[in-house]
Amino acid sequence: MPSRHDSVDPWDPAAGTRPPVAARRWPWLLGGALAMGALALLLWQGWDADNATLQTLAVLALAVPVLLLPAQWLRRPRRGAATRRPATELDTDNWREAVRQLRDERAGTPSAFDALASGMESVLGESERRWQALAELSADWYWETDRQQRLSWLSGAAPQVLAPGLDDAALLGRRFDQITLFRSPEQGWTALQSRMARLEAFRDVEFQVAAAGRPVHWIAISGRPRHNSQGHVIGYEGVGREVTERRLAHEQLLASEQRWSTMTRLAADWYWQTDAEHRLLPFSAEQRQRVGPDLADRLEGRTRWEAHGDALTPAQWAEHRGDLDARRPFRSLQLEVEAGEGRWLWISLSGMPRVDSSGRFLGYHGVGRDITARQQAQALLLRHNESLQRAVEERTRELQQLNRDLDAFSRDLAHELRGPIGQVQGLAQMLGQRAGSRLLAQDQELLRLQVQSAQRMLETVDALLGLARSTMQPMPLQDLDLSALAHEVAAELPAMARRAPLRWHIQLDMRVPANAAALKIVLLNLMGNAAKFTRDCATPQARVGLRAEGSEGLRVSVQDNGVGFDPARVGQLFKPFGRLHARDDYGGSGIGLTIVQRIIERHGGRVEAQGTPGRGACFEFTLPLVTLPPVPTPAPAPQPAAQEGSPQATQA
């Protein structure tokens, strides 16, 4: 970059030339010759001689060099004068020229002037190197303008900071507002030009730079007037810096602050702060409006236990103050406070400690919420729940009484029916025994049918009584050993005429949460059906198993290889008195599976059935998973190798 100052020759400002060396040294040679002659004359004649004329000549000869010395110094330039020019007038070329002159003017033999010149050249060269390194490596870059505010000089890093690949020619000679890459600052270019016209310093004027191939970035410049050696203003000088990251962070902070302000205005909560002594700091105008002027006046400058001592019990206040002393956050501290004019509010407070940058405790801050409407709704709901609970309890007592009445009625009805039916059955049997030999074969068959009908009526009455009990009896659950219970039921099944013995396959270590008495009725019906409907099989087999059903609980299955049933008619199985087979073939009341369904549903499960004609049937029921303490159960009976007989008929 060209020099910004002109160098001046101290010897001849007009022509820029220097006198020859001989012209500069002849006074010294003449004076030296005269001095040597005068000294030789004095030594030859002696100073004490009477020749006054000779003494006068010697003195004059010695005085000539002394008189010539000032004239010589007046004509000769002072050594180093160029280097003593003002620092503001020396740029890179000028100070190098001054040092060169100093070297050229040295005497024929080494002197102190040589060392001075070498030292000045080294110091100034190192200073320039450091200044250039600072200008190239610093985040700031240097700029200068002329008196018309046009850029006249930029440090080497400036173009690359503004736009990669940009050269000085695109920037120099133009004002800031004339550079198309620069966008107007917030105050506008006119404000900046007015300040520069008034020769005022400015700081951190930020504007955007839209350079091709680079995202828009921000530049901040600061400047002050620039003066020459005479003190005249010759333009401006200053520094620039890229502030994109700071600007983006500032914009994000403003956006976050705006979002926070909007959320604060729209949210139902209000913000509060306390000092280190837990006294509430003054509320803002918006917070006072949310809280209420009367309540805000009572709270500001006081602790909560001072302002609302009756809102909590002493023990509750002590617990809350313990949290504050331990600097622990707290949540949902609910207080009922008087809001003035006879109004009472419920507020919920949450807070946490606040500290400064050095970690010093400043107090607490948090949010408060008016929960009066919620508390009123909860109170109303509580009153409704209490009313509903009373109605439910009253209705439950009525239903329980009704169930007890129905249970008593069913018992009385069963007792009343069993008596006459038993009498009919007994009289028919007595008649057959006494007059059997005198009766015809047809009459004896009629008596047999009468006894059989009476027996079926008794079975029906017992089944109806069992159905009523399955609905009424309590169902306390326990951890039950299902394997042992299945062995017990298999051993209790009544004997019946069979084509071949029935073989049971009962899974080991089956445990379920169920009621033992009720589940035994379920197994008696299901396992009895398996025994009854396999009596005509050549190799009858039945299985009792258990498997987990994930979140659904446990699934128990009772499967046989008997006569099976039509799957299209599975819906009739669980209806009272529903039958899929002739009663004369397999007997039964037709209520057994209905009882099974009622008991399993009271356990919270369900019953399913699958069958194929001639290939058997499978009945499954589910039980929910319930964690219960184990209950001791009797030891399982030994499993018989073969079981004959049939339970009471329970499947239609």
What can be said about this structure in brief?
This protein is α+β, with helices and mostly antiparallel strands and 652 residues long. The protein has helices at residues 21-45, 52-75, 92-104, 112-137, 158-162, 189-197, 244-266, 285-291, 293-299, 304-307, 314-325, 372-435, 441-472, 482-492, 516-532, 583-586, 592-602; strands at residues 140-145, 151-154, 202-209, 217-227, 233-242, 269-273, 330-340, 343-355, 361-370, 478-481, 503-506, 511-514, 541-548, 554-560, 607-612, 616-623.
How would you describe this structure to a colleague?
The chain has 652 residues and is an alpha+beta fold. It is built from 17 helices and 16 strands. The chain has helices spanning 21-45, 52-75, 92-104, 112-137, 158-162, 189-197, 244-266, 285-291, 293-299, 304-307, 314-325, 372-435, 441-472, 482-492, 516-532, 583-586, 592-602; strands spanning 140-145, 151-154, 202-209, 217-227, 233-242, 269-273, 330-340, 343-355, 361-370, 478-481, 503-506, 511-514, 541-548, 554-560, 607-612, 616-623. The strands form four sheets. It has a five-stranded antiparallel sheet, sandwiched between helices. It has a five-stranded mixed sheet with strand order 11-13-14-16-15. A four-stranded antiparallel sheet has the order 6-9-8-7, sandwiched between helices. A hairpin with a 5-residue loop joins strand 1 and strand 2. Helix 12 (372-435) runs antiparallel to helix 13 (441-472). The two termini are 115 Å apart. Residues 1-18, 76-90 and 640-652 have low confidence and may be disordered.
Keywords:
652 residues; alpha+beta; five-stranded antiparallel β-sheet; 45% helix; disordered C terminus
